[in-house]
């Protein structure tokens, strides 16, 4: 076997750490999974020291698409060996990296907390490699989250390149929206400086959040939704399902086109 592409991560993980991205994938990409002629394949890349987040992804996606198959891919052979006792019909674990050693092109690849340790140029290169491995109509969900999953940001990429950027937070887990900046994808985190689009977006989001402070007595969900509506006047915030609108905002999500911050 050729050496897997990539480096071993810290492996930090835990129950429900990736529930926000799981929920988004299940809601936004269920039609993609159900459209597959054969059993749709999903890859969880770099699942870490425990199998648990891969198992949770499998269980959640089986609700919206009972035919889905999930493969957990890890570069550390010890982690793969520890996960294999938890395999079941439709859920397997293999050793590998960004080359995705799976039997067919996946429709969805989830890669969380795997690119932060790389240089920005290397992160772009790994994005390119992943895009070359997915199904032509597939999607890559790549991002980072806090240790307990209360703050997360992820990019969605197709074979053609980045499509969207999604912010997700637990209400009460932040003071202002720009607190999520620490979870930006590697390709953006160093660009959060004056003069860059992502910095200006976060600055205006904070401003809209402050403007909507009078809605705080009605709850954080109301304030978040009103902030999204206000921000959408100047930024291309997704305002209709499945990516936006009240149903997503009530969950503490906000999605914009990648082009807005590229």
UniProtKB/TrEMBL annotation:
**GO molecular function per UniProt:** methyltransferase activity
**Keywords of this entry:** Methyltransferase, Transferase
- InterPro entries linked: SAM-dependent_MTases_sf
Gene3D superfamilies assigned: Vaccinia Virus protein VP39 (3.40.50.150)
What are the BP-aspect GO terms? Answer: methylation
What the entry lists under SUPFAM superfamilies is as follows: S-adenosyl-L-methionine-dependent methyltransferases
Q: Which domain of life is it from?
A: Bacteria
What's the protein name? Class I SAM-dependent methyltransferase
Annotated source species: Microtetraspora glauca
